[in-house]
Design a protein that fits this description.
The chain is α+β, with helices and mostly antiparallel strands. The protein is 64% helix and 14% strand. The protein has helices at 3-27, 53-77, 81-95, 102-114, 117-141, 146-167, 169-184, 203-207, 232-242, 247-254, and strands at residues 32-38, 41-46, 192-198, 215-222, 225-231. The strands form two sheets. The protein has a three-stranded mixed sheet with strand order 3-4-5. A two-stranded antiparallel ribbon has the order 1-2. Strand 1 (32-38) and strand 2 form a beta hairpin. The longest helix has 25 residues, at 3-27. The radius of gyration is 22 Å and the shape is elongated. The relative contact order is 0.08.
C-alpha cells in the first residue's frame, strides 16, 4: 500500500477518534463552543466553564477507546493487518502520558485529584521528557527513513511543549484552583483539609500543595503560636494581589490581622 493511502487511513481513523470525543461530550451534556487544530490533534473548547473531573477523564479516554475497539475488530472479527496497525499506532500514541495527549490529560486529572495540582504537572512533564527522549533515540537509530525523521520532530515538539508547560505551571495551578472553587459551589458537602504554616513561608509554597478533592484552611504560626487562619480562596486572591510574599509580609501588605 502506498504512503498516500496509509496517510489517508490515518486521517480517517483519527477523525473517528475525534468524533468519539465529541460524541462522549454530548452524552454527558456539554456543549462544544469551538474546535481548534494543534499539532497533537484537535483542541475542543466547551461553553461550560467547568467540566466534572470524572466526565473529563471519560471524554479524554473516549478517543483512544474508539481506536481500541477498532484494534479488536480488525484483529478478531474482520482481520486486516493495515487497519489493525493504523489503529494500534493511533491508540498507542494517544494513550501515552505526555503533555497534550489524551493519556497525559487523563493522568494529570487523576493526579490533580489525589496528589495535587503542582505534582500533577511535574509528573506529566517528566513522563513527556522520558517519552520524547525515547522517540529521539529511536529516530536516530533509523534516521535514514522518512517516518522516523517525522518521529524525531515529534520528540522535539514534545520537549518544547513540556518546557512551555513548566514555565506556565503557576498560571495553570491558579486556573485549576479557580475551577475547583466554582465546582465546589455546587457541592453540598466539601471535604476540608487543615494545614499549618509558619509565617516565614511563602504563599506559593502552600498553593503547590493544593489538590482537587479538598478545600484548604491554613493556620498561620509564629513559632508555636497560632496568629490566625486564611482560606484557600483568600490565599489565591492575595497571591494575585501581592505576588509570592511570605505570610508575614502578607499581614503587613493586606493590613489584616488574622
Amino acid at each position: 500500500m502506498t504512503y498516500v493511502k496509509v496517510i489517508l487511513l490515518y486521517m480517517i481513523f483519527y477523525l473517528m477518534h475525534e468524533l468519539a470525543h465529541i460524541l462522549c461530550s454530548y452524552i454527558f451534556g456539554y456543549t462544544i463552543e469551538s474546535i481548534k487544530f494543534k499539532w497533537t490533534g484537535f483542541n475542543i473548547n466547551f461553553k461550560e466553564e467547568i467540566i466534572n473531573p470524572i466526565y473529563d477523564v471519560a471524554i479524554s479516554l473516549s478517543g483512544p477507546a474508539s481506536n481500541l475497539i477498532c484494534i479488536l475488530f480488525f484483529y478478531y472479527v474482520f482481520s486486516n493487518e493495515i487497519l489493525f496497525r493504523v489503529n494500534f499506532v493511533l491508540f498507542l500514541f494517544n494513550i501515552m502520558p505526555f503533555n497534550y495527549s489524551d493519556g497525559g490529560r487523563t493522568l494529570r486529572m487523576i493526579l490533580k485529584y489525589y496528589v495535587g495540582f503542582y505534582k500533577s504537572y511535574i509528573i506529566v512533564n517528566l513522563c513527556s521528557i522520558i517519552f520524547a527522549v525515547f522517540l529521539l533515540i529511536v529516530s536516530f537509530l533509523n534516521i535514514n527513513k522518512l517516518n522516523f525523521i517525522l518521529i524525531f520532530f515529534v520528540g522535539i515538539a514534545i520537549i518544547i511543549n513540556s518546557i512551555i508547560d513548566y514555565n506556565n505551571i503557576v498560571i495553570n495551578i491558579l486556573k485549576d484552583v479557580y475551577a475547583k472553587n466554582i465546582f465546589f459551589k455546587n457541592r453540598r458537602i466539601i471535604k476540608i483539609k487543615l494545614k499549618g504554616v509558619q509565617s516565614s513561608n511563602k504563599i506559593l509554597d502552600i498553593i503547590k500543595t493544593f489538590c482537587f478533592n479538598k478545600y484548604y484552611v491554613i493556620y498561620v504560626f509564629e513559632n508555636t503560636k497560632i496568629i490566625g487562619k486564611v482560606t484557600e480562596y483568600e490565599i489565591i486572591n492575595y497571591f494575585l494581589s501581592f505576588g509570592n510574599v511570605t505570610f508575614e509580609e502578607l499581614i503587613k501588605k493586606s493590613g489584616r490581622s488574622f
